[in-house]
Amino acid sequence: MLLPIITYPNKQLKVRSAEVTQFDHLLHRFLDDMFETMMNSNGIGLAAIQVSNPIRALILCIPDEDGNQSKENVIEIINPTIHNPQGTVMYQEGCLSVPGFYGDVERYETLTLHYQNRHGEKCTLEASELLAIAIQHEIDHLDGKLFIEKLSYARRKKFEKEYKKNMKEKK
Ligand code: QAP
Ligand code: CO
């Protein structure tokens, strides 16, 4: 089932999401719906809060070398924590909740992720490159933060102007 994605400046996006405690069929169905919704919108990452469910769950599907995404490559990440972050990189990010806008954000280059899968099993992941960036972007959503808050002052000003103009045009 496709779920509606909420977009900036919806205040719900500022909510801190709560830990997941029930790893039941309802969670599984929700994660499946998140995947369908993300693929339908050409996304590579989606946090539960973006579909109005404030729980600490996110999904990622990083494209392979040919740019293809497949269901086998989906990573479902629940109750994540970042450990041993190293280095910094700049990357031009976008977000399904900030459609049509991209901007440079600084992130850690590599990290270790502790999380639970859909069955509540504890997992560890060593992440670098786009996966590491995407993890940080999505965990920010769980803490009520958007990438636009991490832009330079000048870029943020430009964003506010452009985005509001686009919003008016779309109405
Ligand atoms: C988060 O972002 C991310 O504006 C996932 O019109 C971003 O899937 C992780 C999208 C950068 C790593 C690096 C954005 C689709 C998708 C748009 C997305 C749009 C259509 C964004
Ligand atoms: Co996002």
Description of the molecule:
- It is a single chain.
- By secondary structure, the chain is an alpha+beta fold.
- It has one domain (11-170): Peptide deformylase (Peptide Deformylase).
- It has helices at residues 25-40, 129-142, 153-170; strands spanning 45-47, 57-60, 75-93, 103-116, 122-128.
- The structure holds 2-phenylethyl (2E)-3-(3,4-dihydroxyphenyl)prop-2-enoate and cobalt (II) ion.
- Residues 41-45, 91, 93-96, 99-100, 130, 133-134, 137 line the site of 2-phenylethyl (2E)-3-(3,4-dihydroxyphenyl)prop-2-enoate.
| Global Rg | 16 Å
pLDDT averaged residue by residue: 97
Our count of domains comes out at 1
N/C terminus separation: 26 Å
**Care to count the β-strands?**
5
Major sheet: size, sense and barrel closure?
5 strands, antiparallel
Question: How would you summarize the topology of this molecule?
Answer:
Layout: H1 25-40, E1 45-47, E2 57-60, E3 75-93, E4 103-116, E5 122-128, H2 129-142, H3 153-170
List keywords for this structure.
single chain, 171 residues, alpha+beta, Peptide Deformylase, 5-stranded antiparallel sheet, 3 helices, globular, binds 2-phenylethyl (2E)-3-(3,4-dihydroxyphenyl)prop-2-enoate, binds cobalt (II) ion
Task: Give a quick summary of the entry.
The protein has 3 helices and 5 strands, in the order αβββββαα.
